[in-house]
Amino acid sequence: MSTKTNKPKKTGSRKQQVAVQSNALINARYEMTAFQKKILLYIISMIQPDDEDFKQYTINVKDFVTDTDYKSKMLYGKLRQETKALIGKVYEIEEADRLSQISILSEAVYIKGKGTIQVRFTPALKPYLLQLKQHFTATPLKYILSFKSVHSMRIYEMLHQFKSTGFFVEKVQKLKYRLKIEDKYQSYSAFKKYVLKQAQKELSQTDMAFSFKEIKEGRKIDRLEFTIKPLQEIPIEAKQEQLITKLVMDLRLSPLQAKRIVIMVLPADIHRTIYEIKEAHRDGKILTNIAAYSMGVFRKKFQV
């Protein structure tokens, strides 16, 4: 086992860093407190893009106190308690052909008299955190660390995947399942008040707000259509480049194919079509090459 460490500078803030994760990990099912989630993303932000293996990542308690604005004098003891809890936490990662149950941390080592904690991820998480080339999301740590509700953090991550598309549709039961709260908020009114409305309030103070439309199946609210509102405007040229990049990364189109689509199709239609194709791919409905399938869909819908 490697003894190399990835240590933040003793006086260096991590608030300007991002936590980069596979979308499969963001959409995983797990239960966690807000404090535990902040610790986890704080550690994830230490992973470097060129890391080929996990290292022993070091939390400097003083830096963590500064970055998270926690004032408790007992924070070192709380960190010790919560990292121990994280060793027992499990991700349930659902993909097209499998359901993986993976523990998060394999160890936490407390360096006495140094005010530091060294942690290591479970090796099975490598495909979801290392050398990510596609289907990943980078969330700014400075916003995550400001949240009070763990559900707000998770909704922020989920919506961040679709920030460029501007919308996201999910069944209520599936969203509650991912958040692992189907037994806690059994009534929709409680779920709306304590989860959705709280997330709306907290996200409005970040780079991304949202509204949601309730869609009924009979008398029951079956699914939610989220409208995502970036709070910082992006120039039109930059938006076009982002769309081209998204088509290349998500649907594996060539840059030329992607540029042709961006020129000929309205952005809202492109985003919605990407969403539909990704949903079909996730559900295992695409039996051919995803690039060929995608071009077929765009040709049929928009005569590209």
Brief account:
The protein contains 13 helices and 11 strands.
Describe the SSE topology:
Elements: E1 5-6, E2 18-22, H1 23-26, H2 34-44, E3 56-60, H3 61-68, H4 75-87, E4 90-95, E5 98-103, E6 105-111, E7 116-121, H5 126-129, E8 136-140, H6 141-144, H7 150-160, E9 167-171, H8 172-179, H9 188-203, E10 208-217, E11 220-230, H10 236-251, H11 255-264, H12 267-282, H13 290-302
Helix pairs in contact: 2-4, 7-9, 10-11, 10-12, 12-13
What does this structure look like?
The protein contains 13 helices and eleven strands. The protein has 304 residues and is α+β, with helices and mostly antiparallel strands. The chain has three domains: 139 residues, Arc Repressor Mutant, subunit A (Orthogonal Bundle); 84 residues, Arc Repressor Mutant, subunit A; 67 residues. The strands form four sheets. It has a four-stranded mixed β-sheet. A three-stranded antiparallel β-sheet has the order 9-11-10. A hairpin with a 2-residue loop joins strand 10 and strand 11. The N terminus is likely disordered.
How many domains?
A: 3
> How many helical elements?
13
Low-confidence parts: 1-11
SSE-based structural type: alpha+beta
Helix content: 40-55%
How much is the average pLDDT? 88
CATH homologous superfamily placement of the largest domain:
Winged helix-like DNA-binding domain superfamily/Winged helix DNA-binding domain
For the report, how would you describe the main beta sheet? Answer: 4 strands, mixed
End-to-end C-alpha gap: 53 Å
- What integer value in Å does the Rg equal? 20 Å
**Which range does the strand content fall in?**
15-25%
CATH architecture of the largest domain: Orthogonal Bundle
Overall number of strands: 11
List the strand order in the largest sheet: 1-3-7-6
What is the CATH C-level name of the largest domain? Answer: Mainly Alpha
CA-based shape: globular
What is the string of SSEs from the N terminus onward?
Answer: EEHHEHHEEEEHEHHEHHEEHHHH
CATH topology of the largest domain: Arc Repressor Mutant, subunit A
